[in-house]
Design brief:
The chain is α/β, with parallel strands linked by helices and about 240 residues long. The protein has one domain: Rossmann fold (3-Layer(aba) Sandwich), CATH 3.40.50.880. The protein contains eight helices and eleven strands. A nine-stranded mixed sheet has the order 2-1-3-4-11-10-9-6-7, with helices on both faces. A two-stranded antiparallel sheet has the order 5-8.
Amino acid sequence: MATPRTRLRLVLLQIRSDDDAVRQEQSCFIERCRIARRQFSFVNLVHNPEVRWRHVEDAHAVLVGGSGEFSVTKGHACSQPLREVLQQLIDDDRPVFGSCWGHQFLATVGGGTVTEDLERSEVGSFPIELTPDGVSDPLFASFPRSFQVQLGHNDRVTKLGPGWLDLAWSEICPYQAIRLAGKPVYGTQFHSEMDEERLRERVLIYLEDYVADEAEHERILRGLRPSMESDLILERFLELYA
């Protein structure tokens, strides 16, 4: 990391309409990046769909968060402006990291495909496995081949565009982590910004959207597990590329 940690400036692009979820997601990213809140700028694409280059040009890294309400498979007012901004960041070799919805949107910017697949939805703590490209990627250096992550999604990436690398997978959902080869551009289907306690909070916020009934809710909460390796990813991303 060329920039001292205390001088980093990050932009988090969010797409959430629930105020509690907006604040909770901000806290999650601050915790996992391990920098001060004052070093973040937040842009909520729900209220500011016309995102422009000026919103991100001074950032050392741009992060794109998840969404409990909006699907990448459907068009939104922010879709084209966001696509243009992310493509310019990619072209300029700027660090970009997408989590969940952000991961899916990045995949479509790169020519990939995202599909709604409720039968393969995942909510809770799950193990994933690194691919050979993942094992050799600096972001996952010294990680075990398999580790726990926190997941909450109904959509998934079903095809990668040219130049994108598959870094991690699971039996239920391939493309758990991806990277644009030779670029500081990553996406994780899992929530790199959340540990099991933060996922517990998120499940309660989006209970009606992701959980079928009370029994399913209890099953998910009982199954939550620590995700020690995943909790390091955003900090490592900044150390390597910001």
